[in-house]
Amino acid sequence: xxxxxxxxxxxxxxxxxxxxxxxxxxxxxxxxxxxxxxxxxxxxxxxxxxxxxxxxxxxxxxxxxxxxxxxxxxxxxxxxxxxxxxxxxxxxxxxxxxxxxxxxxxxxxxxxxxxxxxxxxxxxxxxxxxxxxxxxxxxxxxxxxxxxxxxxxxxxxxxxxxxxxxxxxxxxxxxxxxxxxxxxxxxxxxxxxxxxxxxxxxxxxxxxxxxxxxxxxxxxxxxxxxxxxxxxxxxxxxxxxxxxxxxxxxxxxxxxxxxxxxxxxxxxxxxxxxxxxxxxxxxxxxxxxxxxxxxxxxxxxxxxxxxxxxxxxxxxxxxxxxxxxxxxxxxxxxxxxxxxxxxxxxxxxxxxxxxxxxxxxxxxxxxxxxxxxxxxxxxxxxxxxxxxxxxxxxxxxxxxxxxxxxxxxxxxxxxxxxxxxxxxxxxxxxxxxxxxxxxxxxxxxxxxxx
Length: 450
What we know:
Blueprint: H1 2-28, E1 30-33, E2 37-43, E3 49-53, E4 56-59, E5 65-71, E6 73-78, E7 90-92, E8 95-98, E9 104-107, E10 109-114, H2 119-129, H3 132-152, H4 157-161, H5 165-178, E11 183-195, E12 209-221, E13 242-248, E14 252-253, H6 255-388, H7 391-412, H8 437-449
Parallel strand pairs: 6-7
Antiparallel strand pairs: 1-4, 2-3, 2-5, 6-10, 8-9, 9-14, 10-13, 11-12
């Protein structure tokens, strides 16, 4: 019985173990690719290959497939700083370079490499290097060292360490992407700081650094028939790899170069100080001249201001005099105009009076004519009346009037009427002044009767 139970347990354990193994084998078939990585998968049974760019996943049957993982972006650092370990994909010692003027230095450098995104170039990378570490060590680092050392020979140490580092960086970035120039050594004249000669037995400490043109051997790019620079084949081009960024730090010079740079800095500093002192002296002279000129200009300005003030005052007075004269002219013109107006008014009044007098004269003449015509008309009417009355009736009327007058005179008894000896009718004027001959005769008759 115990043997049967043990057999069943072993059988159940075997099934369980087989199930667990089968589960893990099934799970292991699912392969994932993280973001920023690329995997090249090869089926060893069929020989087929495939490239998977993350993030993604694929099926890999167990025991018949192999995959190799590559990092898409790789930063390679050539640095002596221990703190850089872990910050970059790969860290190596600074690159030893030799400049055209034979000075040496260690150049800290970082470069960023980018894998191709197409499958054909990735197959070529995987075929040539078979692993990511081999790719970094065999291609990235070695090519970068080769390009840097060859490019450094195209520059002198002095020009690089004295402001030419950016030119070196641009040259390295250009040649690592497009291919290193094919160069040839040529003698080139450059300006460099050298020690002045000291007589034999003299004090060498009194030797000075002087700038002098010297001839050095320099790697100069060769040109083709068209005048274009000839380049070597770029090892990154056939794999589609791009170098997106190159950064340089200050080179670490060798002892001899460092001494030269220190002496150069001292000489340059002294020269700068001397030039600065000369410039300061020149500026002081300019300042003194400018101050004197400023004082003269101030005095001249004051004089001009005073003269301008006097001119302005004179102009003001002239303007006031002109205004006064104009005012007087206006007043006189006003008075003259008023006088003319008065004269015109008087003339108009005189003309009006003359007209009135002429009108009066005419009116008087017309009035006299009117009276004359009226008198003539009345005389004619009276004449007509007398002519119409009979003389007997007129005589009776005269007698009547006479008798009545006598009666009145006799009644009173006191009034005696004396006949005038001389009668003047109408002051001797006659009938022309309004009287008539008939009236005069009647009056005479009446007076006579009285």
